[in-house]
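Minutes, structural biology subgroup

Action item carried over from last meeting: produce the structure token record for HTH deoR-type domain-containing protein (Terrisporobacter mayombei). EB confirmed the sequence was re-checked against the source entry. Recorded below for completeness.
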Amino acid sequence: MKINRLTEIILILLNKKTVTAKELSDKFQVSTRTIYRDIETLSLSGVPVYMSKGKNGGIGLLECFSINKTLLSENDKESITLALKALSTIEYPNINSVINKVGFVNNKEDNDNWIDIDLSRWGNKTYEDDKFDKIRYAILNNKLVEFSYINSLANQSKRIIEPIKLTYKGQSWYLYGYCRLKEDLRLFRISRIKDFEVKNECFIKRYFENQEINKEEKEVFNIVKVKLEVKKEALYRAFDDFAEESIIDNKNGTYQVNIEFPENEWLYGYILSFGPYAKVVEPLHIRNIVLEKMQETLNMYNKNT
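Output recorded by EB:
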């Protein structure tokens, strides 16, 4: 819709000094002629937009211009509220002050109370110390970071990282960066990072042709397809963790759950966490490994009796 395009153009101009009509036409997949008509529409509506010619010319806004809250729809305001609330869960510096200052978010009384996000574990503080604040500072200032890390194989090591970004994936926060020990890109789970320190040394950002965020401690595991038979008492866990289409009702009080995970100790532990309410149907080797671990657990308890 044209009104959405006009609003986006204003937001783009607010974040850039100038932009060319070609850049805008490419972004919105319209002709430059349409962009020029949009600029004329904005000008006629009172938005102080201007066009300049020459090598460094383009479309821009007068510096005195500030966005009017009426440009934001109720959905826009709710989206901003959601984003700010999400940031508050990681104790992002001064975020509560920002929420209070951004007056256009709260058009109605208590409008921001429609959602409450809490990513903390039960019984624990959201995230210890000021780890997120330190990571933010290191990323924005190209500072090396050093920390101890425990990977999924229970191996502990000291790492020096060139931090690139924070990412939220699979219900957990991760630090993504270039690991100087492994000489490659890595994804580090925040909860496994200990003794975090920002170094005084700066680094020059590297260019990577393919920045795939899919490597957490690049010990490579085989992805296995596992078929579980889950009793109805644990059905809620299946719906917590998996898509509905991967859960099939067997019509006998049990459910077939098809999952795909890297084969590692976490997978075995996850299956065992169902207790007597789930069993591995296939593959056979996973079934046997789980049985062996059950026996090891029984042996451990028997030794203590």
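Discussion: The chain is about 35% helix and 25% strand.
Next step: EB to file the record with the rest of the batch.
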